[in-house]
Design brief:
Shape: elongated
Order of helices and strands: HH
Largest sheet: none
Distance between the termini: 45 Å
Length: 100
């Protein structure tokens, strides 16, 4: 049983890492495409660096806001599901109780 839990935990960690890498790659590609105007130099110009910093900052803030909203929605969903299950259990218990 413990081996299954460890394997599941490792799969979850791998999935989380893949999601992080996907987010990072998307952020980098988006900001690069929006901010880098010339690839003739090995370094970014001051304007490109400033643009990239603004872009990455905005996308990071957006991601944090989305994750916050997602967490709130999941909490509300979980609470509603728990209440539904409790109501179903109560109804099943009431139906199983013989009438006197």
């Amino acid at each position: 049983m413990e081996a299954g839990w460890i394997a599941g935990s490792m799969n979850e960690d791998a999935r989380s890492f893949r999601e992080f890498l996907t987010l990072y790659n998307t952020l980098t590609e988006t900001c690069f495409n929006d901010c880098v105007y010339s690839v003739n130099s090995a370094t970014l110009t001051a304007e490109e660096q400033s643009c990239f910093n603004r872009c990455a900052g905005k996308l990071t803030v957006l991601n944090h806001r989305l994750m916050g909203q997602f967490a709130q929605q999941m909490q509300a969903f979980s609470e509603a599901k728990l209440q539904q299950m409790q109501a179903e259990q109560a109804a099943a218990a009431a139906a199983a109780t013989p009438a006197q």
